[in-house]
Amino acid sequence: MLSVGLALGTMSFFAAILVYLKMPRRTRKWIEKHYLFTDFISMILVYVVLGGTLTALIASAWCAILISAALEVAHNKEDYLFLYHFKDQTVKSMGGLKGYLKTINEEYKKRHPHLGEEEEKVV
Fold first, then answer.
1. Which residues are within 8 A (CB) of 59 and not within 5 positions of it... i.e. 6 or more apart?
2. Which of 57, 59, 83, 91 is 20 to 30 A removed from 100 (C-alpha atoms)?
3. pLDDT tens digits for 24-76?
């Protein structure tokens, strides 16, 4: 029950981050300014959406902790520059992985040319 709650809370946190990143800058600044209200609303929202069980309570508490930490980092960027540097390095590393996966995909297409033709007919 605890591990399921933590997993659900983590997934809810990443979903909240995706929604947050799609919001207009003005809305994001308001959320960063009113982080206590945001924590409270996010905890209640996750609890209600997940069904109001004990597992949902654990998930909502964990999600609220993660959201608090993320808002702290977003509000005080100067204090957490190392995290932004880590993110930039990770994105740069993923660029190399993307090229490697593209190479593997091209080799696979050469070995199995008939697979690409079937997909084009379906579309």
1. 4, 5, 6, 7, 8, 9, 12, 46, 47, 50
2. 83
3. 999 988 988 888 888 888 889 888 988 888 999 999 999 999 998 988 888 88
Transcribe the chain into DSSP letters.
-HHHHHHHHHHHHHHHHHHHHHS-HHHHHHHHHTHHHHHHHHHHHHHHHTTSSHHHHHHHHHHHHHHHHHHHHHH-GGGGHHHHHHHHHHHHHHHHHHHHHHHHHHHHHHH-HHHHHHHHHH-
Which tens digits make up the pLDDT trace of 104-115?
A: 998 988 888 777
Chain length of the chain: 123
Exposure letters 5-43 (e unless 16+ CB within 10 A, then b)? bbebbeebbeebeeebeeeeeeeeeebbeebeebbeebb
